[in-house]
Amino acid sequence: MNSVNASTGLSMFQLRYGRAPRVIPPLLTSTTVTSCKPDSDLKDARDLLTKISLLESEARDNLYCAKVLQAYHADKSRGPCEIFEVGDLVLLSTLNRRQAYKKAGERRVAK
User: Fold this and answer.
1) Suppose 8 and one of 40, 59, 80, 110 were both cysteines; which one would form an S-S bond, judging by CB atoms 3.0 to 4.6 Å apart?
2) Would the pTM of this model clear 0.70, i.e. be above it?
């Protein structure tokens, strides 16, 4: 549920909220709660949005790196690409065209 994704390197909670979840909620008493200051709240909100944006960029970069790495490992086991030139004989798969004449329409052949 809150496990780290192998491709992004971050958990979904961390991507969404910009921080790791708290395991044990903090205990607050009435004496520890302070009044909110508008300027500090605005700065904190900007900092949080910046941090979430940076985490999102990091996740995007990690996904791109994972994609490149997967392509590299997939291409290791493949043979070299064949380059065709004009006039070369090739075999084409016509599996999708075999029953095209049977489909509904004005020029339908089958019942």
Assistant:
1) 59
2) no
What tens digit of pLDDT does each residue of 28-54 get? 555 555 555 667 778 888 888 888 888
Cα 29 → chain centroid: 42
**Cβ proximity of 21 and 13 under 8 Å:** yes
10 lies in some domain: yes
The enclosing H or E element of 72 equals: helix 38-76
Its domain, for residue 13, covers: 1-25+33-80
Q: Is residue 103 part of a domain?
A: no
Total domains present in the chain: 1
Q: Above 60 in pLDDT, residue 107?
A: yes
- Judged on CB neighbours under 10 Å (0-12, 13-18, 19+), 86 is exposed
